[in-house]
Write a structure and sequence with these properties.
This protein is α+β, with helices and mostly antiparallel strands and 390 residues long. 28% of the residues lie in helices and 27% in strands. The strands form four sheets. Strands 1, 2, 5, 6, 7, 8, 9 and 10 form an eight-stranded antiparallel beta sheet that branches. The protein has a five-stranded antiparallel beta sheet with strand order 14-13-12-11-15. Helix 6 crosses helix 7 and helix 7 crosses helix 8. It is elongated and about 130 Å long. The protein starts with a helix and ends with a strand. The relative contact order is 0.08.
Length: 390
Amino acid sequence: MKKILFFTAILISFAVKSQIKITQENSTSESVKPELDNTKDISEYRNASQFLGLIGHKIFGLPLNPNYDYKFTSFSIMYQTPEKYRKENGSVYKAGEFRPINKKDYEDLISEKYFIVENIDFIVGKKVTPEEWNKEMRFSTYQGGVKLYIKQVDTNRVFILENRVNSLDFFLSVDYYEFLKSKIGNEILVEEYERFKIVDKINNLTPEPSVYNSKHIYKIVDLIIEKSESNYSSKPDLKFKIENSDGKTRNICVKSDDYSSLSKFVYKEQYDKYLEKFKLLKDEKSKVFNEKMEKERAESELKMQQELKNLVNKYGEVIAEKIYYHKLEPGMTLSMMFDSMNKIYIDYVSHTESKDLSGTWDIYTYKRVSGDYYIITLLNGKIVRFSKSN
């Protein structure tokens, strides 16, 4: 009986010590909050907060270009049909179901009309949270998997806009359009090779910003949506009309179906602030560098003063000063020679015992970093002569 109790006690003890603890990992992802970004076109949005910021705001359906062949174009727009609809292939959609739209539908229902964004879903295989979508898309160059539920202003027609390749390019955020309109009257710097590029994080490798002159400065005088006559462009261009100091005007693309036609420009006010920031950081770096050099100079001077003081204590003022300035003279001892010259550059050549009992002769050679070459002769441990050559 005692053995059974003892064995039971061991089992109980083992169970207590071997309990498996289960903990829940704390989520490190930040909660996504809607943030309207009116400084970018919606086709450039890259995170969930930007898309969520569109809810309650208007977007505008751009017109189609007249010469483009839309035969194989997928608009990625679903329309909630108010009545039974039969497609050419025989597919039937009941009233209230969402059906894809074609070119004619687009021109009748979307082109040059306003819509309110009512809701947004994020899809990664299935519906996910904005936080999960951000996590999945953080390394992706294309942010797909977004569904915008939009309602046409005035008619209340309902659509689902899916964020697929180029599909958002068919729409223009009204807030973004108003942001661009607010730039009318501002000055910009126009160039072809990203000469006036603004670097977000300035470091030691950041190149000196380019200086602009009057020929680079243009004033924004208008914002226009211009249909393209090109057979290769499916959507119209959004352009700034700009004017230089000579009164000559031209148009530059802000939003275009052809990325290569987008103009390289930067707002002059923004670039001026960047130049000021760069100068301040450069001046600060220069100040830090000068302070470092001054500190090193002071430390070096203190070290040299201490070195001279040690030599004075060792040899007296007269000899110490000559040694300090790396001078040789007859009568100096071997120790003085080593202190005067850099010992690592001194080579021992020969040792000779004098037959006339005058003493011991030693010859050393010394080559300075500068190239000066010395032959130094010592008698009984003191310099008697030295010669210098280049």
